[in-house]
């Protein structure tokens, strides 16, 4: 069973199939195959290279705080 | 930043065979300690937020554990509706992985709009059962919208039949012998059936047969005692039961299906049997959900007595999730979590001597490229969700 981490979308390719997200200070390319209607500046939950669903900025921040409390991220 | 952790899987080759399989995990299994000291209600809100991949199964196991720890009864309709939501999640997970991964393995294009359309399944199913802020709480009020829920069942059935089975789910589920299976496979032209045709025609369907040792039903009190022992962290990271390694997968749930029993005679517990188990489980879900909708109406006013707390203030939640059996254990005092643990199916299946290790050990190793391809396929056939890094040495 797996964790998914929130990340901010900073770019989307021309076909709308892949996005670049910001994970901490690291940029990562992910697939948008599982989600509809993602825009730059949206927050998405990512897992094994896929965006699973969109979340609000507040949900993303709250989740990242929980991961930080657990010591999983700094 | 790698929050998810990873499995590193090493295949050591010697004289054109696999001499050793090593599985090393960096998965963050101690995360549930975060819940200690938190009120039960806060924990129930945090679990689906943190464990969002199979968030419905996780939330269901959490609420079961907490209800038992707090001796909290729940309406039978609520318990059934929660079970139905987990079943919808299993369907969505199977649909996602079959439509994406199997298409890629068969070198066929992925139907992206269809895959993306599945993202609405869970939100719609949840809103058909409960108010948004009253989902997987200790004592939620059911607000069942039958028409909306039936539309979800129809979406699952239509997607599966049009894009995967080329048949109605009930027709696929009714196939009970090899002749019927071969006939269906020859008639079907979907990416997933093309992948299965390749397995059959290239005689690779038996690859990865390391047997099947199904995780038995374990008495909740005995499991809770095991998870309370001093070496619980070790047990949760590399679980065994009385010294034996077990798997918990769609195959172990579906093993009694007559077609699978025949496939075992032809393919053992290799790729074909495991992949068909997932298809048959998906095919069974619309019928299961329709029956549950009927049962739900008959449960009006009944109360589900939660089993008494195992030991005072302790509870265990057990849910069959998409990948296998998921267990949560909660200990609370005055509504505050004192201890919280999660035992996930991944740890049984990716145990260093578990089903993945045994199956990989059986793969032919003459050709490295073929070995990598078959290893990816076998790992996907057991658990298509977990992130891993495969190294052939």
Could you provide a short overview of the structure?
The complex is a heterodimer of chains A (74) and B (393). Chain A is of the alpha+beta class and 74 residues long. Helices cover 18% and strands 42% of the residues of chain A.
Describe the structure.
The complex is a heterodimer of chains A (74) and B (393). With 74 residues, chain A is α+β, with helices and mostly antiparallel strands. Chain A has a single domain (5-69), classed as SH3 type barrels, CATH 2.30.30.140. Chain A has one helix spanning 57-69; strands at 5-12, 18-23, 26-31, 43-47, 50-55. A five-stranded antiparallel beta sheet of chain A has the order 3-2-1-4-5, with helices on one face. Chain A starts with a strand and ends in a 5-residue tail after the last helix. Chain B is α+β, with helices and mostly antiparallel strands and 393 residues long. Helix content of chain B is 51%, strand content 13%. Chain B has 17 helices and eight strands. Chain B has helices at 40-50, 55-69, 76-105, 112-117, 121-127, 146-165, 169-173, 178-187, 191-201, 220-227, 232-237, 250-254, 258-267, 271-298, 345-349, 355-361, 368-382, and strands at 7-14, 17-25, 74-75, 303-304, 314-321, 324-333, 336-343, 388-392. In chain B, strands 2-1-8 form a three-stranded mixed beta sheet, covered by helices on one side. In chain B, helix 1 runs antiparallel to helix 2 (55-69) and helix 3 (76-105) packs antiparallel against helix 5. The model of chain B has no long low-confidence stretch (mean pLDDT 93). The chains are: A alpha+beta (74), B alpha+beta (393).
């Amino acid at each position: 069973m797996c964790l998914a981490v929130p990340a901010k979308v900073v770019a989307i390719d021309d076909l709308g199939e892949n996005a670049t997200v910001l994970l901490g200070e690291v940029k990562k390319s992910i697939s948008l195959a599982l989600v509809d209607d993602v825009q730059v500046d949206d927050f998405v939950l990512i897992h094994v290279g896929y965006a699973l669903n969109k979340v609000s900025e507040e949900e993303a921040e709250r989740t990242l705080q929980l991961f930080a409390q657990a010591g999983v991220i700094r | 930043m790698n929050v998810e952790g990873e499995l590193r899987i090493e295949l050591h080759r010697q004289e054109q065979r696999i001499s050793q399989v090593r599985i090393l995990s960096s998965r963050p299994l101690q995360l549930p300690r975060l819940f200690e000291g938190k009120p039960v209600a806060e924990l129930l809100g945090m679990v689906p937020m943190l464990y969002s991949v199979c968030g419905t199964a996780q939330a269901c196991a959490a609420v079961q554990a907490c209800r038992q720890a707090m001796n909290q009864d729940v309406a039978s309709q609520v318990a059934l509706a929660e079970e139905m939501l987990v079943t919808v999640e299993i369907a969505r997970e199977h649909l996602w992985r079959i439509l994406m991964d199997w298409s890629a393995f068969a070198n066929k294009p992925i139907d992206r709009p269809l895959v993306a359309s599945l993202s609405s399944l869970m939100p719609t199913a949840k809103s058909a059962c409960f108010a948004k802020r009253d989902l997987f709480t200790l004592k939620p009020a059911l607000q069942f919208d039958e028409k909306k829920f039936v539309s979800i069942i129809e979406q699952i059935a239509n997607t599966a039949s049009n894009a995967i089975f080329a048949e109605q789910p009930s027709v696929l589920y009714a196939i009970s012998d090899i002749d019927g299976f071969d006939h269906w496979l020859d008639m079907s032209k979907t990416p997933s059936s093309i992948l299965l045709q390749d397995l059959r025609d290239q005689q690779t369907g038996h690859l990865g047969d390391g047997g099947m040792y199904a995780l038995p039903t374990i008495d909740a009190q005995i499991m809770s005692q095991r998870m309370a022992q001093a070496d619980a962290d070790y047990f949760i990271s590399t679980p065994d039961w009385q010294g034996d390694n077990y798997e918990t997968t769609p195959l172990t749930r579906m093993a009694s299906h007559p077609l699978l029993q025949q496939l075992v005679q032809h393919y053992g517990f290799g790729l074909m049997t495991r992949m068909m188990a997932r298809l048959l489980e998906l095919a069974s879900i619309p019928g299961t959900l329709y029956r549950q909708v009927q049962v739900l109406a008959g449960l009006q006013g009944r109360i589900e007595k939660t089993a008494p707390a195992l030991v005072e203030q302790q509870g265990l939640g057990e849910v069959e999730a998409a990948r296998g059996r998921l267990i949560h254990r909660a200990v609370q005092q005055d509504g505050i979590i004192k201890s919280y643990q999660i035992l996930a199916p991944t740890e049984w299946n990716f145990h260093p001597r578990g089903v993945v290790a045994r199956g990989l050990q059986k793969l032919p190793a003459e050709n490295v490229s073929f070995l990598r391809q078959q290893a990816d396929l076998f790992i996907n056939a057991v658990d298509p969700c977990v992130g891993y890094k495969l190294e052939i040495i």
